[in-house]
Structures are given as C-alpha cells and as structure tokens.
Known about the structure:
This protein has 908 residues and is of the alpha/beta class. The protein is built from 29 helices and 25 strands. Helix 15 (503-520) packs antiparallel against helix 17, helix 19 (686-696) packs parallel to helix 20 and helix 27 crosses helix 28.
Amino acid sequence: MAYRIGFSQCSMDGPWRKAMLAGMQRELSFHSEVELRVTDAHDNSQRQQQQIRELLREGVDLLIVSPYESEPVTPAVEQAMRQGIPVVLVDRRTGSPEYTAYVGGSNKAVGEMAASYADRLLGHQGRIIEILGTPGSSATSDRHQGFTEGLRAYPGLQVVGQVTGNWQEKTLKPALATALQQHPDVSLIFAHNDAMGRGAFEVCQQLGLAKQIRIIGVDGLYGKGEGIDLVQRGVLDASLLYSPGGEDAMRTALKILRNRPFKRENLLGSIVIDSTNVETMQQQTDKIVSQQQDVERQQGLLQSLRATYASQQTILYGLLFALLGALVLGMMAWLSARKNRHINHQLALQNAANDKINRQLVSQNEEIRQQRNQLEALAEQARADTEAKLRFFTNFSHELRTPLTLIQGPVEELLTSSPDLSTMQRQDLTLVRRNTQRLLQLVNQLLDFRKIEVGKMAVRATEGNLVSFVREIVDAFEKPAQLRGVELRFLAAEPVLMAWFDVNILDKVFFNLLSNALKFTPDHGQITISLQPLNEGRSLQVSVADTGPGISSQDQAHIFEWFYQGEQAAAAKGSGMGLALALGLVRLHQGQLAVSSQLGLGSTFVVTLPRELPEELCSVALPAAKLHAFEETEMLDADLVPATTQALPESTSQLLVLVIEDNAEVNEFVARKLRPHFRVHAATDGHTGLRLATDLIPDLIVCDVMMPGLSGLELVAQLRQDWRSSHIPVVLLTARNAPEQQVEGVQAGADLYLTKPFNPTFLLESVRTLLANRAHQRERFRREMSTETATVVATDPDQKFLADLTAIVEANYTRSNLSVEDVARSLGISRMQLYRKVKAVLGTGVTDFIQNLRLTKARELLLDESLTIADVAYELGFSSPSYFSTSFKARYQLAPSEFRTLHITPHY
C-alpha cells in the first residue's frame, strides 16, 4: 500500500538538520511505496504554520513536524490531529499534548553530561566559558539549564563568561576573543554545537591558547569538518552525540501507518565521543556508510530489474494481442507461444532474484543496527572498566597509607625521642623504618602507574646538565655497591651535555634501572653507566650495563609488562612494576627504553632521550607550595569504623583541639599525641565533626580528607562559610600530594596539609605554630576594636561576625538589662558558642565587649554639650550615673566630667 508523508522542517540550514533529512531518506530507501513531501520554513514560525496547513490540504497520510518554536505551530498540529492525521514531533515539542508520537534527545541531559565530562576532564577544578546557541531557542535554554544544574555538583568548576554564537562559528569570534582576554585563566570552553566549537578553537589558536584550553562540542556528526572528524584531529577534546533522529522518526511513522505497536515517547540517548572511542566511532560509521552505499547500489540494480520487468510485461501484452490476430496463421501462433514461455521463465528468474535481494537488504539493515548497539555497549563497558580500575588503585593506595601512618609515626618518635634505646633496639627500629619507606615507595609507584594509565602524569621539563644529574644518582648507589665489592663505573663522553628534561620523571627511571642492576649483579661484579650524544647531538643515550646472569629471550619479550617477574630466583623477585614504570615514564618523556641481554653475560638497558622537547612540555621552576604535602585521596570503607564521637580526658590547658578521623587507630594515635598539651575531643565522621565544631568552637581542628558522609575538603569549606567557625585553623591529614589537589585544598581554606605517614613531632609543632598565629590575629582584632569608633568593616567572616555583634549591641544601648543570652539569641546561637567565638576572636568575654562598646560610644556622646553626664549614662544603658562614672574612670583614668572639660573648648 502506498503512503504519502509530509515533513515540515523548521530549517534546512546546518549539517545537523541535513543529517536529520538524510536519516529519513536512508530509512525510506527500504520502502519504495512511501512518498516524502518536504517543506523548509527557514526558521520562520509563521511560514511553518502555513506550510503545515498546505500539506494538510494536499492530502498526506501522516505528518512529521520539527518545530522552530513550540507555541506558534501548536494550532496547525492540533488541526491535523482533529482531521485524523497522525503527527510525529521530532527534536522539539509543541505547546499541546495533542500529538501521536515524539522522537528526540534531551538537550538538558546533554548539558548535564557536558558538566560531568568537564569535571572529569579538568580534574574537579577550572574556569569555563559557555558558548550559547540562538537566544530563545529551546535547545539553547535546555542545554544551558542542564549545564548549569550539572555544575552544581562540582563546586570546583566556575563559569566565568558566556558568548552568544547563534549556532555559527563566525558570529562568536569577536566576543569570544574579548572574553578570553578578560579571563586568561580559562581552562575549558563548552560550545552548544560542534561548529561553534570549531570557531572557538580558531580563536584560541589566534590568541596562542589552543594548548591551554579544552573544548567540548555537541552533535558528534560524521563527515569532514564535523564532530567525529574534529575530535579525531584534536580540534575538539570531546563531542556529545546528539542524534538527529531521522531514521527513528521515519520508523515510528511507518509503524503508525501500518497499525503496528509503537512508543509514544522515544527519547534518544547520547554518548561522549573523545580520544578513547573516536577511532571506533569513525570505523563503525565508515562501515555503516559503506554498507549504505552497497544497499543503494543493490537498490539501483533492483530498480533496473524492475524496469526490465515492466518492459518485458509490455512486450508480453503485445504478444498476446498479436496472438489474437494470428489465429489464422498457425506458425505465427506457435512461435508466439514459444516466445511467451521463454519470457515467463525469465520473469520467474527475475522475481526470484528480486526476493533474494530484498532478503539481503533486510539482513544487512539488521546487521547495521546490531553493530550500532554493540558500539554503544562497548563504549559503556569501557567507561565502566576505567572507573573500576581507578577505584581499585585509589582504594588500594589509601588502605596501605593508613597502616603505614600508624607504623612510621611511633617508629620516628621512638628513634628521635628515646635516648635510652639499646644498640640492638635502635637497629631493629631503623630496619622497620627502612622497610616502611620501601612500602611507601611501592605505593608511590602504583600511583605513578595510575597517573600514566589515565594520562594524568604531566612532563615539566627544565634545561640542565644531564651528566651531573645522572652522576648524582650514581653517587647514591656508591656505598651499597662498595659493601658488596661491586665496581660502579660512570663514563660520560663530555663533561657537560645540556638537555631539557623532567627531574622527577628521570630520577625514577634511572633509580629503577640502577636498583635492578645492583640487585642482579653478583658480588665483585661490575656496573657501567655511560652517557653519550646521538644523531648528531639531537639525542642523548644513557646505558646501564651489568655483569649479572642475563635475561632469557622469553623473559625479554615481557619484562616491560606490568607485574611481570619472569623465571628469576625467589630472592631476586620484586614487585614487577619497576621496569614497566620506567618504560611508561621514558615514553611520556618522548624517549625510548630498550634492553639487550644474553644468559650468563649480563644485561644492558639503554635510554634514548631527545635533547629538545615541545614547548608545552617545558616550564620554569615551580613556586614553593603553601601545603606541606598532598597525595592521592581515596575512600576508606565506612563500614569498618563506627560513626561515633569519643570524649577524651581533658588536660589542664584551656586550648581545645578537635580531631576528626574515620580510622579509629589513627584517630586514637593523633589524640594521644596531642592530649598531654591540649584538651582534645574526637569524632569519626565528617557530619559529627562539623556538629562538634559549631557546638564547641574549638581552638584548632585536625581532620582527615576523605571520610564517610562528608569529606575533609567539604567540611573545611562549610567551616569557612559559617562565621561561628570561620576563624578556626584546620590541619588536614591526607594521602595525596598531586599538584591539582594542593590547589583544591588551598581554595577550600585549609591552613596546613600533612601527608600520611607523618611525623608526630612535626604535627605537634605545626599545631602550636598555627595557634600562635591565631593569637597574633586576635591581637589585631582587639586593636581594631579599640579605635575611636566601634564600626567594623565586614571584609571576612570574622569581621562580619564582629560587625553583626556590634550592630546588635548598638541597637540595644539603652537597655540596662541587656544580657549575654539576649545577644546570643539575636545571633541565633547558644550562650556558650557566643562566648567561645568572642574569646577566640578578641581574647575577651562578651560582657567586657559590651561594656567596651558602651564606653567607646560614651566618649562620642560626652562631646555633645546638650547632653548631661546622666543623659549619657542612661542613653548607654548604665543603671546609674555613678556606676557610669566609675566604669568610665576605670577604663580611661578620667572621670566623664574631666574628659568633657579636657576635650571641649570653653566659649568666651
């Protein structure tokens, strides 16, 4: 049965709209009985409404509408429904629920996905510019809303500017260039489509910011200059697939026309296309295009066969008429009958061929759909595998660092503060410390492995003398080599060989190679380290040769694989990470690591490095960080530690320290070290710790970074936002030392970071230093409050608290019965909280503070000759003029009358 479908498109401009129409036409290539009538409204709602009504007058069996604006086309769609014509809406809805089916993606979900991917791409911290589509467009508003709501889950990401691009790359360029010049620290641009993302990349290139700024686009279309191609060429870091939905809309329309079951709401999914899956997407799309071309060629052959069939039918009819006129001619009738049988045989063969071609087309179409589903499943599985790998390494690292803290802390304290240890005890403790440090080195190697795997290990090269750098590493192995009689030789072709290299990366590489060489070289053997230029001085080669047992050819094929140990003696077995880590670091440094070895003749490892590195890998020396250390943070198992609060015995000190740590043993260890010097309270989860901090107002807080319910960084941020606790110094205990985590900690408001395992003595001295600094700050506030005026400028939370407190007291000057409870109630806190806050900020009591404000105001009022001293006393809430005079004289060593005489010039 033949059908006629009308398609009202809001606009044919732009590759995404063209892709929608192309998808419909691809689906219709399997249904020759369907005619598609297409109209283009050129982004004009009035014109689109008229075109829909024209399609209805021409007579269509079904109407597909992609609205430009929802409300203006609603009456025309409702008219079609009243006439019994089904309506399929694509991409955008109308303002009425009267439609047959809807096919399209969720622009809001795309915006939320962009926010999530931006957080993962920037490592939880960055500044963003958003490039919007046409103002008023539902796609623009929904994508912006989704992106804004998605960013609320990532407080480290901040949108600092917006540029309107109207879906075109040329429109946005002047405004984007201005925005980037105003915000040079922008690290990511989110463009509402790939064309604007391409324009943003060109602007970044002109400003020299292309390597600094990441760009995310939307559409993910196939073709030259479109999303997949832009990601593949590195123009975009990612493109969010927003399917045009042409095929799905046409399939839904055909189900409706043929009275088959269909879904009224068809929401199309979206995926992130980035460097991890763009090659797969490209290959799958190429294959789909190739198969589509095969389908079109076969359809062309089918059309040719049908034309032949129609031509032969005409011949057949002519022969039949000829037979009627040739009844009198027997021979002509016999020949005609014979020819007729031959034509029928050909027609039967052609019908069989047509059936075979149709079956092949159906099979190939099903194969294409299965491959698309497999591609989506593979992409989802890859994301799940990556997340599982990251969780494994982070949890494993933290599980090791926590017990290392409880081992290394007491050991360090015993070694440094126990002079009565015997020689044997000191040797044993030194052995424990050395092996604890070795465990910590293995943890760091695991973290380096994780960073390499996910591309987070950055090269920061500086220019230096590679000869002196390698010599220093060799010197560190001189003593252990002498103890075993191993000859350590260092040969350099020249005394100075300058190159650009990352000290931290190459230190790990050469340390691993020399450690392996010393481990496998027998006593009285020889290790030779040589350094020489290659390729006419463009490269440098460092080789480490030993006289060990050598490596078999079977092991040589696998020694650079992670955790491979080979067929070596049990005493020589290691973690299987050293060589794999060295290879990954050398490649990251754009170099090569190779091995040559023969059994019984030793091994030689050769590192080849370029002397010059790309500009983006070179940097100046990094400034000293505010934080002591900050390594990778991982989540402990919350079920292992009950979330309870322990009240520990208080010392004679008036200073209160709150310890918040989810590991019970670490919690007790820290509290035990601080208890002889301070009063200590403890909590084992973030929410309990936050409640205690605001209830008790401690003098200092020691807190772990990751805890059940509320992390240390989130806790610090909330403390800094609340004026009750904004003044409290915070020391964070952590297992992270990555630079990006240091920045995150500074922004959260931490005063100091200590890396697990930490030195207990250093922790105690750090606490004392922070409390001393707090005392200096308290003295500054007291000097500010003792000025001629009681007004306080609210420039930070502590000063805002003082401003609010001062305003409440000033508003109640006349109340002689104004109490501390009244002031606390006005501020919405308890009497104890108010007392501890004032004591912490000013070092004085609340009553003294109120009295000082009144006496400061009294000096101002005494200068007004129209007021008597009694008027001033009652104006300021003193119960009697005598009490006012006594208080004033105690403060200023002058009676009120003497003060007035001294400061008011007599009138003559």
